[in-house]
Amino acid sequence: MQIFIDTADTKELKAAFDTGLVDGCTTNPSLIAKAGRDFKEVIAEICEMTTGPVSAEVASTEADMMLKEGKRLAQIADNVVVKLPLTWAGLKTCKTLTEEGIKTNVTLCFTPNQAWLAAKAGATYISPFIGRLDDLGLDGMELIHDIRQIYDNYGYETKILAASIRSASHCIEAAKAGADVSTIPPKVFNALLNHVLTDKGLADFVKDWEGTGQTIL
Ligand code: E4P
């Protein structure tokens, strides 16, 4: 499963890309607002950090404007993926951008039917929001399972991008459910590595090695 980082914070992104394990990035208008910087400038900066996909979301809710915005965003760099909301206008724009060879990420997906329509519109990625469904007391992960089954049944090539990830266990469950990508907030990405027994085990190894008085080089 690929890892994208879900942030517009370029400092956090740089640290994540420096691990060599991160495949791309997703942003949304809320994350851009949180970063407090010029949208197109931030996207350009992120696109220079990676050759992987970088999702940048349109602001308009109307198809003609979405198309113009999407084309403008796609001009920033070759690895920009235009993010579109799961509305009729978003799907119409998705279809047009796909036909023009521009990659798309259809976002705010909460049902298998929405994901099916996005695949029919030729979306490169579909973003089902796990955490926001869990917040309502529903089972967000069930949505990933359902979409995987539908896409596999009919050979849709749209990639499942598990979004609204809130915990390290969400990542494990998304991988088990067959998501192609998980987009993860930096805090959760860092938590993927942590285990108390790893820390304790390493401290013991370092101490015992020092006790031998040996060196390897
Ligand atoms: C990513 O593409 C989504 O915009 C993001 O994962 C949403 O996460 P949230 O529900 O934590 O805001």
UniProtKB/TrEMBL annotation:
<keyword id="KW-0808">Transferase</keyword>
<dbReference type="InterPro" id="IPR033919">
    <property type="entry name" value="TSA/FSA_arc/bac"/>
</dbReference>
<dbReference type="InterPro" id="IPR022999">
    <property type="entry name" value="Transaldolase_3B"/>
</dbReference>
<dbReference type="InterPro" id="IPR013785">
    <property type="entry name" value="Aldolase_TIM"/>
</dbReference>
<keyword id="KW-0704">Schiff base</keyword>
<dbReference type="InterPro" id="IPR018225">
    <property type="entry name" value="Transaldolase_AS"/>
</dbReference>
<keyword id="KW-0570">Pentose shunt</keyword>
<keyword id="KW-0963">Cytoplasm</keyword>
<dbReference type="Pfam" id="PF00923">
    <property type="entry name" value="TAL_FSA"/>
</dbReference>
<dbReference type="InterPro" id="IPR004731">
    <property type="entry name" value="Transaldolase_3B/F6P_aldolase"/>
</dbReference>
<comment type="similarity">
    <text>Belongs to the transaldolase family. Type 3B subfamily.</text>
</comment>
<comment type="pathway">
    <text>Carbohydrate degradation; pentose phosphate pathway; D-glyceraldehyde 3-phosphate and beta-D-fructose 6-phosphate from D-ribose 5-phosphate and D-xylulose 5-phosphate (non-oxidative stage): step 2/3.</text>
</comment>
<dbReference type="InterPro" id="IPR001585">
    <property type="entry name" value="TAL/FSA"/>
</dbReference>
<feature type="active site" description="Schiff-base intermediate with substrate">
    <location>
        <position position="83"/>
    </location>
</feature>
<protein>
    <recommendedName>
        <fullName>Probable transaldolase</fullName>
        <ecNumber>2.2.1.2</ecNumber>
    </recommendedName>
</protein>
<comment type="function">
    <text>Transaldolase is important for the balance of metabolites in the pentose-phosphate pathway.</text>
</comment>
